[in-house]
Amino acid sequence: MVTVTEAVVIALLFGGLFFAFVAAVGLIRLPDLYTRAHSASKSDTLGAVLTLGAAAIALDTGVDTLKLVLLIVFMFITNPTAAHAIARAAADQGIEPWTADDADPDGPADGDPADAGGDPDDPDGAVADGGDRR
């Protein structure tokens, strides 16, 4: 039978796994640096903190738990600060955030030019009517 402590550890581990997965998907699917930094700083931090919290509860020794709690505090401070510094540096370099106007209304989600009316043999991916593709 699973004790209450083990159930809490398992729940925290699955929560950490979920948020780490959400962060990974966000890094792959989100369109620009700013939204990716947001995904990485929020979801990844929460995933790591939940996992470290599960380890702190599972270890149940004073010194090890203290070290993990200090690591959790360190992560809560450094991860969002690093994401903010990266976003600030990108803004200083003039990198514009993605907007809905940047989306290609004719473009497919998977990027196949044949699905959007483009010529699949055209290496530039130009639209069939001669317009530029964004």
Automatic annotation (TrEMBL):
GO terms, molecular function: sodium:proton antiporter activity
Organism: Halobaculum saliterrae
InterPro entries reported for this sequence: PhaG_MnhG_YufB (IPR005133)
Name of the protein in its database record: Na+/H+ antiporter subunit G
Ranges annotated as biased composition (Acidic residues): 99-124
Domain of life: Archaea
Segments traversing the membrane: 7-28, 48-77
Organism placement in taxonomy: Archaea, Methanobacteriati, Methanobacteriota, Stenosarchaea group, Halobacteria
Keywords: Membrane, Transmembrane, Transmembrane helix
Chain spans, region Disordered: 97-134
Biased composition (Low complexity): 125-134
Entry keyword Cytoplasm: no
